[in-house]
């Protein structure tokens, strides 16, 4: 069965808001097509607003988060890393102004959605072909849009920091460690991050770790001790305090609540 999913933005952002509102590493490709409403997105160290007729793409291994407005409408397409290879290698936020391009994108996503729902023979082959067409559509749009200004030194620093941060979630390395690897002071990195991302570099790391911790807690039955060791917490007790601080629940209570929500088809704890 294909690992590609097509959902509405309402479904994508509301069922479990923490999944998208916390800065985290995108493991596969993600395409968001916004047809109504607005919001704010963090894309690999840069915070930007978006509105209707915006196409947003997050490549694998990039840090991101999103805050949707209440009136949001549109669709989200998630792709495994191997299918994301046909998409642009960097994050994109494009305003799609002409009606033909808007209709093309909507049609491509709808074709993919129907294919997945019908679950006919050769589904994986069909979805792979449709993913390639989506990638071609997006690359054409990138080609036709005016090139962005050359990245500033601060923007380049944030991209390098986010590259390192995405590689080191759960490694035990601190913001100061990553600043040292980038040959800058923690103070400078903090200032640049506030200006570009709206939060500090340390907060970016904490959110990514909180997301990964919560994901492992609610999507598996692996012991808390094993999770704390895998993510390089000093001890299971420190892991418990970290989870309580960021969710208001103990690890066991959070896992129980998530499993109960999944069983009865309701939203999990926020």
From TrEMBL:
Signal peptide: none annotated. Keywords: DNA-binding, Transcription, Transcription regulation. It comes from the Bacteria. Coiled coil: none annotated. Residues 159-257 form the HTH araC/xylS-type domain. It holds the Pfam family HTH_18. SMART domains: HTH_ARAC (SM00342). GO terms for molecular function: DNA-binding transcription factor activity; sequence-specific DNA binding. InterPro entries: Homeodomain-like_sf, HTH-like, HTH_AraC. This is DNA-binding transcriptional regulator AraC.
